[in-house]
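From the shared-data thread, chain only:
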Amino acid sequence: MNPKHLLILGGGTAGTMIAHHMRRNLAAADWKITVLDRDEDHYYQPGFLLYPFGHYRRDQIVKQKRDFMPKGVDFQIAEVEKISPDAHSVSLKGGSTVAYDLLVIATGCRTAPEETEGMLGAEWRKSIFDFYTFDGAAALREKLATWEGGKLVVHVTEMPVKCPVAPLEFAFLAESFFRERGMRERVQITYVTPLTGAFTKPKAAKKLGHLLGDKGIALETDFAVEKIDAEGRKLICYDGREVPFDLLVTTPTNMGSEVIRDSGLGDDLDFVPTHKHTLQSLKYPDVFILGDATNVPASKAGSVAHFESEALSANLLRHIAGQPLVEDFDGHSNCFIESGDGKALLIDFNYEIEPHEGGFPFAFGPMRLLEESRLNHLGKLAFRHVYWQILMKGRPLLGISRIKKAPANA
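Structure, as tokens:
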């Protein structure tokens, strides 16, 4: 009897973690597991934030995806052309088709600068930069090394975005960077956001807003960008407001993978409609979604993918066993927020609970939530090693992970 087929689309953070969870829990004789991805490079995306400021070498944040795949998983480089859930199949560019019994979509999200008038063009990566891609972070690194000052605008186009605190972190790090170089008085920094405050959660927004003020960073809120006047170097809001810049560091619109759009499976931003607690497709029972590809109202961050993968692996086993799914994922997210000067904050929250104060990962600490500290900064730096050695192998984190027990008859 041929084994059944679990197909995972995407070999990034989410896809790699779920591959490890499922290979450990499914007998190879019963289930074949395949991971498809269109390229070989695996990026440690939190490193994109620090790379423009001269931190890290390329080899520290770019590695090979296949090196992190578990034994017994078939990893293939192939570009998916269309997902056909009704036929339980995926069409690849080149004409071949892959059939599946169970599908996990972990295709991530992409930046879409073409969605904003004026963002792409003659000034792209000359006076207008992003850092949400490795190429963008590398170009910005070169620019910052020689920039002599002026109006720096750090801008978020629209939500949701990967790691929603990263643009704030960039503003904090830039302030510290220019001060250390003795040129802070020559740089005017403005943080421009479509939100009503510095962050999505009111408690954290208040704390982070105060930090912006303390560091002399202007805050422009409720800014829905209509277009960028690249030649005139200014952001233009739909309500007529204008923010001039000499150097614009923008976070473009984030959207789901093109294959989601081409398959007709996504919402307006090409994210897949997903049950926010079970991570099952709202339309197709044999399709589950993980990581940035979902439209669940949680942060698009690596920690969320980690918590999702734990909840999803248990639900996949329940689904295989014919058992009801458990509405177990609660939107749990935690992240370090670099605040400059070798310090960072740490926040922990979910769908319902605001970022709170206290100790982390235990009640006694050693880290403190919603407080700046050197230890939190060191935790942020150490996380790169945790990412490569623990998270990518689907291993639990002491005091943080909540591994769910698999059904006995799965």
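Residues 307 and 401 are 7 Å apart (CA to CA).
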